[in-house]
Amino acid sequence: MTVASRFWRLLSPSLCISSPSPPAARNVFNRSIFSISRSPTLITTSFIRIPRTRRSIHQPTPVYDTTVPSICPSCSKPLLSSVPACTKCWTIFSLPGDLSYHHLLGLPYEPNPFVVDIPTLKKHFREAQSVCHPDSWVSKGNDKQQVAEALSARVNHAYQTLLNPLSRAEYILGHNHLPMSESDQVDDMEFMADIMEAREIIEDTEDIDEVTRMMEDTDSRMKQTVKEIESLVEKHSWSELKAAAIRLRYLEGIERAAKQWLDNH
Ligand SMILES: [Zn+2]
Hints:
Layout: H1 3-10, E1 16-17, H2 22-38, E2 85-86, E3 91-93, H3 101-104, H4 118-132, H5 142-163, H6 165-175, H7 189-204, H8 208-234, H9 238-263
Antiparallel strand pairs: 1-3, 2-3
Zinc ion binds near residues 74, 89 and 91.
């Protein structure tokens, strides 16, 4: 019995909702194991959880590499997105809970997880949603529909998180054990004075030009802060990154308030 066929026998039914064809499964797992030996960094994203009681230290964990096109373990047709859902043979898999949002959407986490190509993110999001949207799995049984719902919700959350620079920075901070909280403050008194002044303008002024100028200034400071965040992630300067992300949160608040003011005037 090959290592790959042993993996297939050990799959948990709750994680692999299909009627797989063993030879096709063997092909994809052989390929996965091959990719482990050539790309050790991928080991962090295990595709299938083998029950702990039956796991052996001699068995490598199969890896689902979401950054390259893969094939369906059941029908061997190419998967149409970064998530393991096949609408050719209606097979769908769960993914490990610790899989990064980047890998979930087929994007690289290294070398800099803050650098996300937005058109690619949007394209991969659309592709993933098109295969795991729960409506498509309604007639395929409760188990499959539940897996689709969970996958679809994760894909949505991952997309929203990576789309916005602030939530992306927060996500990276969380990954590096420095999560942000609502009570986080900025030590930079000059910056805080600017924020208070901007708030006063929004509350007191009736001058559209003044608010427009302030919004342009805020926008420019946000772009500058985003660049700074990119560089801090590159350098793994997590404490400074957190300070910059908190400043970005204040600036986003001002921009939101200014937009609201302009909508109302
Ligand atoms: Zn298939």
